[in-house]
């Protein structure tokens, strides 16, 4: 997965034209390791025959990307660690992730 880093303030971002911090336009393209943490996940029941999740993933490099995590939609929680899959969402074109290990449960 490719992302951008601002040459002026080193902020990492995904698919932007300008840096959201300093408004700089000099952005370098870098390759992500594809490892991240689920920050938020929502189950959607509209426009599809089955429920699906939409998640915000904070990548190890510091940027946030919207995507889908494979598995039962109600089984995805904040704090779960994920890795980028080779698949891509056929409808929305968003990245698809898979859980990497035993889910992290902060409240148990």
Distance between the termini: 33 Å
The helix content, as a percent range, equals under 10%
The order of strands across the largest sheet is 4-5-6-8-7
pLDDT < 50 runs, ≥5 residues? none
Could you tell me the number of beta strands?
8
Order of helices and strands: EEEEEEEE
Class from secondary-structure proportions:
mainly beta
Our Rg estimate from Cα atoms comes to: 15 Å
The global form is: elongated
Strand content: over 45%
Number of helices: 0
What do you see in this structure?
0% of the residues lie in helices and 45% in strands. The chain is mainly β.
Q: SSE layout and pairings?
A:
Blueprint: E1 2-6, E2 12-13, E3 27-31, E4 35-44, E5 52-59, E6 64-69, E7 81-88, E8 95-99
Parallel strand pairs: 6-8
Antiparallel strand pairs: 1-2, 1-3, 4-5, 4-7, 5-6, 7-8
In short:
By secondary structure, the protein is mostly beta strands. It contains no helices and 8 strands.
């Amino acid at each position: 997965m490719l992302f951008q880093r601002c040459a002026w303030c080193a902020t990492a971002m995904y698919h932007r034209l300008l840096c959201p911090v300093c408004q700089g336009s000099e952005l370098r393209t870098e390759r992500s390791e594809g490892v991240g943490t689920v920050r938020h996940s929502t189950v959607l029941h509209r426009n599809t025959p089955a429920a699906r999740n939409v998640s915000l993933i904070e990548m190890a490099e510091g940027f946030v990307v919207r995507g889908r995590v494979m598995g039962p939609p109600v089984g995805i929680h904040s704090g779960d660690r994920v890795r980028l899959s080779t698949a891509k969402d056929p409808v929305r074109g968003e990245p698809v992730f898979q859980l990497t290990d035993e889910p992290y449960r902060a409240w148990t």
